[in-house]
Design brief:
It is a single chain. Helix 7 (215-227) links the parallel strand 8 (203-208) and strand 9. The protein folds into two domains: 8-189 and 347-361, Glycogen Phosphorylase B (Rossmann fold, 3-Layer(aba) Sandwich), CATH 3.40.50.2000; 203-343, Glycogen Phosphorylase B (Rossmann fold). It has helices spanning 20-24, 26-34, 45-54, 75-81, 83-103, 139-153, 215-227, 262-270, 281-289, 303-314, 328-336, 351-365; strands at 8-14, 37-43, 59-62, 108-112, 123-127, 158-161, 185-186, 203-208, 234-237, 254-257, 272-277, 294-296. The chain is of the alpha/beta class and 366 residues long. The radius of gyration is 20 Å and the shape is globular. It has twelve helices and twelve strands.
């Protein structure tokens, strides 16, 4: 592994739809720093606050997010109304980057699902696990969205996919479309967490809430209303790094935390017998890395999470329950009888380091 002292600068900017894009960039940030890069981050809102906690010594540039809000139903229609804002934000972030590059030099830009952060002035890399986008409205619309997404991806020098090439993969058709419109580099699985041999079980159940409102609160209310009858110790993580109003529960068997940093999430998952969480892609990779069992509850109306939940169940990795059907005891019973399969290794989570080394060699020779 390279470990050099030189002034190579890299800008890393994740999408702001949930914290998954920001957290899965953490291993990349650490890998680049180990190799001597000066890392600058670009984020806003919860992602910026997360990075300020994890990397208090790094420069974090304010780059406004997309501010997408999900409705209670019909996500596609809700997003269609927000398309003008989405396209404006893509144009804005492209202009923002051009203005930055006029003032300072970066040897590489890494954009996690922010399509506007490309430039001809430097090497740009786009990270996504959605080479094919699920609309939830049929193949024809999927193809239109795939074509639109690929038209942006082609402007980048490289496209990195956080998954394994071939049939032994995590994202299924999302990362392995029938026809490649770009030439992706598969970077293996990636997680900020590290597996350690479990020493004790502090909790019978850990509930990890996350994702956009109002669905985060709707799931929280549904689960909280059923926790009084649960016999066991519970950790409820609300997924609110900016929480102002604490959640007060009467049950002494329930511990409530607004938010956990990486090391705290790792400890909580490793010391919990069972987990309930969303089926976000980063969360799934974290669970696999820690060899945890979990019950998935995909965000209603979010086709990507609904697809991943179904795919995980079909691959015998995790069972899932729809939010409107969620009953705690029934979900736990489903998990008890589920036939779990673990087909991934520790080496699957180290492939991305090869991509980082290849990029380092490229910048040294440039």
């Amino acid at each position: 592994m390279h470990n050099l002292n030189f002034n190579k600068r890299i800008l890393i900017a994740p999408l702001d739809w949930g914290l998954g894009h920001a957290t899965r960039c953490i291993p990349l940030i650490e890998a680049f720093r180990k190799r001597g890069f000066e890392v600058v981050l670009a984020a806003d809102g919860p992602a910026a606050r997360l990075y300020a906690r994890e990397f208090p010594d790094l420069d974090i540039r304010l780059l406004k997010g997309y501010g997408i809000r999900y409705g209670k139903s019909n996500l596609l229609l809700h997003l269609l109304f927000q398309l003008p804002r989405i396209f404006r934000t893509i144009r804005f972030e492209h202009q923002w980057l051009q203005a930055v590059l006029k003032k300072e030099r970066f040897d590489c830009i890494i954009s996690d699902n922010r399509p506007g952060l490309w430039s001809k002035k430097t090497h740009t890399i786009y990270i996504t696990h959605q080479l094919m986008i699920q609309s939830g409205k049929g193949k024809f619309l999927n193809q239109i969205l795939e074509y639109l997404h690929s038209s942006y991806m082609k402007r980048f020098a490289e496209v990195w996919v956080p998954d394994l090439r071939g049939t032994r993969n995590m994202a299924g058709a999302l990362s392995h479309p029938a026809h490649d419109r770009v030439h992706p580099l598969y970077m293996g699985l990636i997680s900020r967490l590290n597996y350690e041999q479990q020493t004790s079980e502090l909790y019978d159940l850990t509930v990890l809430l996350s994702g956009p409102e109002p669905q985060r609160t709707l799931l929280e209310n549904r689960i909280v209303s059923q926790l009084d009858t649960f016999q066991g110790k519970v950790l409820l993580v609300r997924g609110l790094p900016y929480e102002q109003t604490p959640l007060i529960l009467s049950g002494r068997h329930i511990t409530v935390e607004p938010f956990l940093n990486s090391s705290q999430v790792q400890t909580a998952l490793l010391s919990s017998k069972q987990v309930i969480c969303r089926s976000g892609y980063t969360t799934l990779m974290d669970l696999v890395k820690l060899k945890r069992k979990a019950i998935l509850v995909p965000t209603p109306g979010q086709p990507e999470q609904e697809y991943l939940a179904r795919y995980m169940q079909e691959q015998n990795r995790f069972p899932y329950v729809r939010q409107h059907d969620f009953q705690l005891q029934a979900a736990l019973q489903k998990a008890e009888t589920f036939e779990w399969t673990d087909s991934f290794s520790e080496e699957d989570f180290t492939i991305y380091e090869q991509r980082v080394d290849e990029l380092l060699d490229y910048t040294l020779s440039a």
